[in-house]
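Dear colleague,

Following up on yesterday's call, I've attached the two folding results inline so they're easy to grep. Please treat them as preliminary; we haven't cross-checked anything against experimental data yet. The first protein's sequence and structure tokens come first.
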Amino acid sequence: VQLQASGGGLVHPGGSLRLSCAVSVRTYSSDTVAWFRQTPGKEREFVAAIRRTENSQHYANSAKGRFTISRDNAKNTVYLQMNSLKPEDTAVYYCAAAPGLIVSEIRRTGAYNYWGQGTLVTVSS
């Protein structure tokens, strides 16, 4: 059971990055895959989630209109396309997986069974 996050890096404000999360867990166990982020001294916060069974996507208010979460089931990979990046998007981004979650649970870190190692995104001029 593994999640491998990649794609972080340094980008200027207004730029774009695409994060990838390679998911090597059973399909049932990864029905819901989400991205969270964390900065030093703060709690890990929800960014976006995608649910396979429901074919639905969910976003934090800070991500709506700028970020897009998608999944390629053939490649067992979930992506987070981040556009119009801002300095406040700077954080370590983590992907996480869980069996199918109801909407009220998807923003809760404790609902996820599996976590990737994190990838650092730095938005700076």
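Below is the second protein, in the same order (sequence, then structure):
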Amino acid sequence: EVRLEESGGGLVQPGGTLRLSCAASGFPFNIAMMSWVRQAPGKELECVSVVYPTLQSPYYEEFAKDRFTASRDNPKNMLHLQLSSLKPEDTAIYYCMWSDCRQGMRGHRGQGTQVTVSA
């Protein structure tokens, strides 16, 4: 059974940081293309970052460049997303997904973790 479990979200002030994590199981994580996606209130799912199974640098959507850092720990089946310089518009539920989000949003996702950026 494929399982993805996100954690690390919370309430943070503008300019703050958070580190999201995703624990994966039930599929060959070490060769899987993984993504971070998010869904803001009233909006559709949005691609954030794509993390390759190799050492290739992650892909970031424009809004995430220079603020977000994605990484993976293959031996531990973990995916991470470091969020910094957070803005209120980053408020969303963040999900890890087993697929390349640039190709669509049909991959397995976890239950998500809420990130709220507010003063």
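For the second protein, one point worth flagging: The first strand starts at residue 3 and ends at 7.

Best wishes,
A.L.
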